[in-house]
């Protein structure tokens, strides 16, 4: 079964970084229209073409579900966090190279595969084990290098270069790092010296019930060492470089006085979930995902029963928005029509700076055996429902 890539966000949190009436100077300000009526974009408006990476399948490399795609220069890493708890390494043609599966309690093993970051320069894989509260480092060949204990809780990680790691805390209170009832939502960790720096503090007395994790809090573009951070109920996208965390994009989501009241209520004795269930107060818009290619910034955001895709062109300083209104028990929530190969919706999970990557499960090809797209028709002849998924690569236009 495919994993649903949508998360329903309820509640609101007042983050200290949001305490402003206008964006800070130097920010790129994005103005999504937040259209109230349905308006669909076409994938051909953004991408020139699609190509496909058929991941090789045999009994030794069956993937349960793809939780994370890490596209590198000459290979692609697939992370299955839950079902097989394995890192799979393929080349860019889909040929299987090796897998790293170190489940266990012994030296060089992990109890859980919570997240994976890549040190491209030194060809190291950095595995976060949240159950054991540690970092394990491996070579690309799967050889164990070292184990590092953590004294804080993190939910996602990204490598920043120079042995520095960005660790997102997802509104979890880390008492050892709290200052005057505020806890950091981001901890920068030096893998060599073990020193930490705390950033982006929030009120640690907040009840986090109802705050749901995002698809991709920390997004890395490995081709240019860029890391971006988004957080639930925050209107700013941050860039992280070395030890500097700077707001890069301010997304004007139209915070009305009513929404500020909802934030205030959620910061009181009520939980975020309880506050969001008050029908008299609207739900705060949420940035769910963000990816930056060489030519366009992609944003996925939600408000009430509407899903939005936004595409910002930095050269033209233009913003395209698609919106879809959806109801319960429906899966049709993507506001971009896939008119390029007319198969599954466009749901990007990663970028390499030029392209966006997403997943097409193998069983879908049964539905498209009579496709008029030659690539899809040929793939359908060679793929069975039990094969590994296919990675779809959307080649983004130079100036969409």
TrEMBL record:
Highest taxon listed in the record's lineage: Bacteria
Pfam families: DUF5128
Lineage, top ranks: Bacteria, Pseudomonadati, Bacteroidota, Bacteroidia, Bacteroidales
Gene3D superfamilies: TolB, C-terminal domain
Name this protein carries in UniProt: 6-bladed beta-propeller
């Amino acid at each position: 079964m495919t994993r649903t890539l949508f998360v329903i966000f309820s509640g609101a949190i007042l983050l200290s970084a949001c305490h402003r009436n206008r964006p800070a100077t130097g920010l790129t300000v994005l103005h999504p229209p937040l259209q109230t009526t349905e308006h669909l974009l076409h994938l051909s408006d953004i991408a020139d073409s699609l190509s496909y990476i058929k991941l090789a399948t045999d009994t030794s490399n069956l993937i349960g579900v793809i939780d994370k795609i890490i596209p590198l220069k000459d290979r692609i890493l697939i992370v299955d966090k839950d079902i097989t708890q394995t890192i799979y390494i393929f080349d860019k043609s889909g040929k299987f190279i090796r897998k790293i599966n170190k489940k266990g309690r012994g030296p060089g093993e992990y109890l859980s595969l919570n997240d994976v970051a890549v040190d491209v320069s030194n060809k190291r894989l950095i595995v976060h084990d949240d159950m054991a509260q540690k970092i394990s480092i491996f070579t690309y060949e799967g050889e164990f290098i070292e184990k590092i204990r953590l004294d804080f809780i993190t939910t996602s990680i990204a490598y920043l270069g120079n042995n520095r790691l960005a660790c997102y805390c997802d509104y979890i209170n880390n008492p050892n790092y709290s200052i005057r009832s505020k806890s950091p939502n981001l901890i920068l960790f030096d893998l060599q010296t073990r020193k930490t720096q705390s950033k982006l503090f929030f009120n640690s007395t907040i009840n986090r019930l109802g705050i749901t994790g995002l698809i991709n809090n920390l997004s890395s573009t490995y081709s240019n060492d860029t890391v971006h951070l988004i957080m639930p109920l925050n209107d700013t996208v941050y860039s992280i470089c070395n030890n500097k965390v700077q707001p890069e994009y301010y997304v004007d989501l139209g915070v009305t006085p009513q929404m500020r009241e909802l934030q205030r209520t959620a910061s009181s004795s009520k939980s975020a979930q309880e506050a969001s269930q008050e029908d008299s107060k609207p739900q705060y818009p949420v940035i769910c995902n963000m990816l930056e290619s060489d030519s366009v910034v992609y944003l996925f955001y939600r408000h009430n029963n509407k899903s939005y895709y936004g595409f910002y062109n930095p050269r033209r300083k233009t913003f395209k928005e698609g919106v879809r209104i959806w109801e319960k028990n429906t899966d049709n929530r993507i506001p971009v029509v896939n008119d390029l190969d007319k198969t599954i919706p466009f749901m990007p999970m990663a970028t390499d700076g030029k392209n966006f990557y997403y997943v097409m499960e193998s069983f879908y090809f049964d539905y498209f055996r009579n496709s008029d797209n030659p690539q899809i028709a040929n793939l359908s002849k060679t793929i069975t429902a039990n094969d590994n998924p296919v990675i779809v690569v959307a080649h983004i236009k130079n100036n969409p």
